[in-house]
Structure prediction request, 682 residues.
Amino acid sequence: MTAKMNRQWRLAARPSGLIQESDFEWREEPIPTPGDNEILVRNIYLSLDPTNRGWLRETKSYVPPVAIGEVMRGGTIGVVEQSHHPDFQAGDIVLGFLGWQDYAITNGAALTKLPVDPALPLTAYLGLFGIIGPTAYFGLLDIGQPKAGETLVVSAAAGAVGSLVGQIGKIKGCRVVGIAGSDEKCRWITEELGFDAAINYKTEPVLERLKTHCPNGIDVYFENVGGKILDAVLSLINIKGRIALCGLIAQYNATEPVPGPYNFRTILTQRVRIEGFIVLDYRERFMKAYEALGRWLVEGKIQYRVDVIDGLENAPRGINKLFDGTNKGKLIVKVSEEPSV
Amino acid sequence: MTAKMNRQWRLAARPSGLIQESDFEWREEPIPTPGDNEILVRNIYLSLDPTNRGWLRETKSYVPPVAIGEVMRGGTIGVVEQSHHPDFQAGDIVLGFLGWQDYAITNGAALTKLPVDPALPLTAYLGLFGIIGPTAYFGLLDIGQPKAGETLVVSAAAGAVGSLVGQIGKIKGCRVVGIAGSDEKCRWITEELGFDAAINYKTEPVLERLKTHCPNGIDVYFENVGGKILDAVLSLINIKGRIALCGLIAQYNATEPVPGPYNFRTILTQRVRIEGFIVLDYRERFMKAYEALGRWLVEGKIQYRVDVIDGLENAPRGINKLFDGTNKGKLIVKVSEEPSV
Prediction:
């Protein structure tokens, strides 16, 4: 399954609503050759994340938009195939943002070399470490500041970030209620991950169920989705509640302007703090999150799961699983085979 | 002008939209007599504040709603006329919440005795001290955390709180831009109070003018109004911007649900912190604010102005000046004469 050409998805048009395959152009180019101080990396895994959708908008965001004609941006794990750079050698496994393609040439400046640990699958670096773990860790602990005995609500609770947030909340002694999009997900987070309760937002009345499952109100909300769920949470939030704003998946594909929550005034009357964050701002502290997550993983206190789509050609269709809620855990595309150890 | 009866405005109906005089009932009752450990207070000044409107709603807020049939709640300065309480004597001037009436009986527990300072008019305790000063002081400094050289934007900038916020911002070395509702107000805050720029939201395009007056973006926003002005500010807010949410005057009289800002997503992409606050949470630190405000007043670094409506009978009509923007400074009703010193 090692491509003879460099297959790529380049952005062809800015999507309106859900991403269409026709928003991208499939290209096959010759495999490029690295120059001095450059390396050739073959991508093995490609990370698909809700935030990718924001990169396709023309409007201002935390990173520049992907340009029309550019290879689609995406987090990747790859293997160095050729190195003309003193810091890298063939066979090195590297984490970075090399995009939706088989091969990339880079000077390596933005890459992280990964240790090869036989006990840890490579996908763990996208599903638990990488940016997912620090997103959950810093978003919950730095911004949410949960205290033992408080009630934590998490949306997109069976997603890569949300499932970690809930588990960290349990480690910190919170009552944890997750909101997810299927009965299977709800069972997973309660029976396997130890959430105290789960709500299937597709089949259950969210506000009513939150009232039942949060008898002492809500102290911390880890927000991934926005929309009606945010309004339901605001109507139950306690005085001095904290909302860590990590994502707004519910509106990423909107084609019309989306209003903020109707219960916005509650931020005032309940003295709520809402704070948005981008995990890349915490880059210098990532190691702290990795150490804690690694320890909890070894101790059996946290779990994660990955949902692997086979083949780069399926990336544009696959990414919508994040928006229709059909993904089960961290969504990853397998681009090529892992090197045999 | 000392009433022979206890004239009162009692809530008759929950207003829909702007307050109507018919939402209150005018009553004249005998002046009550204090019992043991009680005092009789004659109200001299009544404070009218935007937050009063929220107390008339049936929905959850930071204080219980005023009940139908109850004397309308309001901040007051009064004079003790009879005391059967060891801590008070006739002639004491007291600050509290004795409501829209001439006289009240109280045990004094929720009152603050005011010093009599010939250099300071009594209205200063409603216009600068009382709760106005601490609202501006803690909202700006604790929540907004302005740094020298940053840009601060204030809405309702010629109001009692907003005008102080801008002046404190100047003391702290910020570039300060105020948004107000008349040319006279804009002149006052720039020419008299030292704001760097002012925008008349009734006659100027707010977003365009903000772009002009905030060439380095907006770091801190002190929010009193909500609505379109909040959206304009969000579209120019800098990374790690702070929004102190003090009030949402623009929606207090709404009869339909009001959505939050359309630029809500900017809170995420720019890593903004929005925090609501209620000044009463800072009660134990009020003295700190009073000391600073008193010093700045003496040093000529801050000014305030009061807009006095004559006569308790005019309170229901007068309060709408806060919502149509026709008040000039802290809105106060003169209920009876100050005692001669």
